[in-house]
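Let us practice reading a record.
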Amino acid sequence: MPVGILINVFSVFFGGIIGGFVGERISEKFKQEINMVFGACSMTMGIYAIAPMKYMPVVIFSVVLGTGLGLVFHLGEKINRGAMLMQRPIAKLIPNEKLTLSQEDFVNTLVTVIVLFCASGSGIYGSLDSGMTGDSSVLIAKSILDFFTAAIFACNLGFVVSVIALPQFVIFFTLFLMAKFIFPLTTPDMILDFKACGGVLMLATGFRMIKVKMFPTADMIPSMLLVMPISWAWVNWILPLL
């Protein structure tokens, strides 16, 4: 049973619901300052994941190539449109929802949250690890932060944050089912590089959360698909030539 995935999904769902209800009662100053703290937490998790990486050229090349592919295929724009499609039925269902963000800020923030919940290195690795070993500790630890993060973001974005639990479940459960096929093909070094690549996304997401620099985090997602094959090729094809 994907216990860790269910805990993580429900933490986002209920966090979004609670934040949607109490959002109007929380001051803007509190929302902004606590969001800065969550941004710092995201960057901390990213740094922690990057630190043990095995092959730096692999991670850098994967991030650059993956982001390039995302930009070429306009992945970020597609996710932006998907984010707005998610919001429309919520706005119809709860028409009195009062949102203070501009359209541009709303989309940028929603995309940040989607990447944070659905494409983080800890979430993807945790789903694979849970499917292979049955250990849900990574996902349970992630759920604690996700619950409060979803609640705070929902204060600004509304109940649409809780809907992110649906694509999150689909992505994580798919990885959970694929784990028994993926893990036997991996090595410890590939896992370290994979987690480091996810850490780069978490770091970029943190910068978006505190609005220092709006990194194209949605366009960076393909790097997560490329890093393990590139790590394998680096060890088996490139290193023997050096």
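A brief commentary: The mean pLDDT is 85.
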